[in-house]
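Changelog-adjacent note: as of this version, every example in the card shows the full chain rather than a window. The one below runs 173 residues end to end.
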Amino acid sequence: MDLQKYIRTIPDFPKQGIMFRDITTLLKDEKAFAETIDIFYHHYKNKNITKVVGIESRGFIIGAALAYRLGCGFVPIRKPNKLPAETIKKEYELEYGTDSIEIHKDAVQPNERILIHDDLLATGGTIAAACSLLQQLKAEIVGLSFIIELSFLNPRKRLGNYEIFSLIQYNAE
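Full-length structure tokens:
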């Protein structure tokens, strides 16, 4: 199945010059949604993952479904002041500003095998911040997964030696 045909592109969102890749059109199609989960499941099913960590907010959708399929736990990484217990925080730069994310201090245990999922890999700033948080918690990051990768922004350069698996690559804006 060509999953790329289920991605809608919205020009100038959230600001002028950005070509937003919208996954809601993929999620609303039951076959495309199931195919997406199945592809990720088959890629990661033998990697002994103990938790899938999803990045707010679209990373929660696939991340939680994938955790269910893998038979492991799910952990959210959220924007500041959204998690109720004690957190650790990491600030990072976006392609159009700065932001920060948080995770509960007790979300993962040392040496747990973690898959981090988000819907889109652009410059790599958000996912690098998530990796930093999980390194602080002494987790083992097994892989980074994405529905979409904006290859033309060279995000892999920023992410070092992590295994990166993305379903759809855009080589030009």
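Structural remarks: The domain at 46-170 is CATH 3.40.50.2020 (Rossmann fold).
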